[in-house]
Structure formats: structure tokens, C-alpha cells
Amino acid sequence: MGTKMINVGVVGATGIVGTEFLKILAERKLPIEELRPFASETSKGRKIAFRGQQFAVKTLEDGCFTGLDLVFFSSGDEISREWAPKAVQEGAFAIDNSNAFRMNPEIPLVVPEVNDPGVSAKDKPCLIANPNCSTIQMVVALQPLYKKFGISSVQAATYQSVSGAGREALEELNNQTMAVLNHQEPSVNALPYQIAFNNLPQIGSFLEDGFTSEEMKMTNETKKILGDESINVSAFCVRTPSQNGHSIAAWIKLKNAATRQEIMDEFKKAAGIELVDDPFNNKYPMNIVASGTDPVYVGRIHQVPNDPKTWMVWIVADNIRKGAALNGIQIAKSIFKLD
Ligand SMILES: NC(=O)c1ccc[n+]([C@@H]2O[C@H](COP(=O)([O-])OP(=O)(O)OC[C@H]3O[C@@H](n4cnc5c(N)ncnc54)[C@H](OP(=O)(O)O)[C@@H]3O)[C@@H](O)[C@H]2O)c1
User: Fold this and answer.
1) Nearest alpha-carbon partner for 137 in 338, 15, 290, 334
2) Which of 28, 181, 221, 261 has its CA 20 to 30 A from that of 127?
């Protein structure tokens, strides 16, 4: 019996995440019969090349998902809130990259290496949420330690690239960099301040308690994915002027003491992780290595002085790949049992 062909929609197909979805879908040679790309009115009719064929971009309208088995959403919260449930009603599994459904207790929030829900194409179509980009790479690194030693708390400081803020912000970083180097005034539209040659301690909007929405995503989503409300998680998220790849410095307090070698052994065995930890030869994870690749890289593993259960780890991944499109495609592969 041949592999079942599937019909796939990509909402936000012209954006940074949508483009990466199409790139990975093409690379992985998944058995796709029809590809239906969607974007805004501005892109309507634009042709998107996919495996040597041209597909015209469509806009969203009632019935637009009919005949699709699977739809990836990456067009922001509002569009997902309105259209992802319609995709399910029209018979497709919806994998949503936005924040709209992540903390809904009825909707699985999935990182396949950590909490694959075992949904299958034979089940009734449903919606599955893809977590926040920084959360995904952090939980992939936490999972093996959580399983082996237990975790009581995690503090994370993030260094997040501009691709995480979308296409417009990335173009702005490049334009600002050129402007500053040419002694011109950089224009600022996509982010609150100039990002070129700067760091911004703000990702998302501020809440009353001083955290940002991005920081609370890391706190709440980490607990939901690990299925453990008792872990004390806090994050300090910073936008840096790198183009792609997010880095996280994490302080991980284990429940049971472990040696550096035991921690490295768990990382070596874990799915989706690449250990790069050879400090005396200047080997550690970096954005420029992670960018364009699949793994979550971990390194710089060392113990906090006088605190034998707390370990510091540097975690780096491509935020558009593992942090968004690749994770979504892994969920789809699990549903449709694709290799
Ligand atoms: N970047 C990341 O690292 C990352 C990671 C995880 C999750 N996400 C989430 O993924 C989503 C997209 O992010 P992105 O970085 O790819 O943004 P982006 O580069 O700004 O792309 C936005 C996409 O949404 C489309 N769009 C806008 N209005 C639309 C409408 N009315 N109907 C249909 N499509 C519409 C745009 O189409 P046009 O080209 O026609 O304007 C474009 O394809 C967001 O929810 C974001 O939070 C992003």
C-alpha cells in the first residue's frame, strides 16, 4: 500500500515562518498532493514555487480549507483565533504558531520530543498549538534533566534575534545597520527603538508585575509542556541585533544532585539535542552555527558556586526552524505517521 498523500494549507505563507514551513516541507519530501498557500490581500495571486510547481497565494474566506487534511497557521493571534477553528470545522488538523490557543487547557501545546499527544490522522481533526520559540528550545533542553534528576526551578535570560519579530523587523535591522554605518538617521517602525547596535530588554508588552508577555509565555508554557505546575520558572527576555537564532542562559535547579558528566550523558542521549561543550577548545553553541539547522544546541554546562544542585547551561536554536516551522512539521509527521 502506498503512502497516503495529504493536502496542506499554509496560512502566512509569505512570512518568515511560513516561508520556512514551505522550505522544510519541500526538503523533507513529505507526500503532499496539494499545497494551498494563504496570505493577506497584498499577496493575493502571487505565485509561490514549491517543488518545481507554482501555487497562487489565496486569501482567507469561508470554505477556503475544504479538502485540506492539515493547515499550518503563522499569521498572528487574531487570524488564528478566527480561522484555525474554521479549518478544523472544514475537516483539517490545524497546527497553530500563534499565542491564541497555547494556554487553553483543552488544546495540546506540543514539543514532540517532550509531550507528543499521540494524535493520529484517524482521530477527529483538532487544533494543536505550537509553543513560543524560546519556550520550545528551552523545554527540549530541560526535558532530559527533568526526567532523570527532577527540576525545582529555572531562571532564563534570553538573547533573541530579530527574525523572531517577523519580516518587517528583520528588514528594519538590516536597513538600520546600513544607515548607522553610513552616518544616517536609522528609521524605527517595527520595534519600539533602534535595534541595530543595541539591545532591547522588551519583547512583547509589559504587564503590571514588571514581566513582559514574552517572559510569561516562557513561564506558563514551560509548566504546561512539562506537565508540572510546581516548577518555578522565570525569564528575562532581551532582543539582540542578531539576524537569526535565539540563545538562552539558563540556571536550572535540580531536585537531585548530578555531576557535570551525568548531565552531559543525558544531553547526549536526548532526542533533538546536540551537545557542544568543550570550553578549553573554545567550543560552545552559537547562533551562526545553529541558524539553518534543526537541533537544539546545549553547552557551557557548569555548576553555580556553593549551590551543588543548580547548573548553568547555554541553549541555542534556530527560532524559525525548531522554534516554529520545524516543530510544527514534527507535530504533523507524528499525526500523519510520516517519516
Ligand atoms: N518569527 C518567529 O520566530 C516566530 C516563532 C514562533 C511563532 N511565530 C508566530 O508566527 C506568526 C507569524 O510570524 P512571522 O515571523 O512569520 O511574521 P511575518 O514575517 O510578519 O509574516 C506574517 C504573515 O502573515 C500574513 N498575513 C498578514 N495579514 C494576513 C491576513 N489578513 N490573512 C492572511 N495572512 C495574513 C502575511 O502575509 P503578507 O505577506 O501578504 O502580508 C505574512 O505571510 C506570528 O503569530 C508569530 O507570533 C513567529
Assistant:
1) 290
2) 28
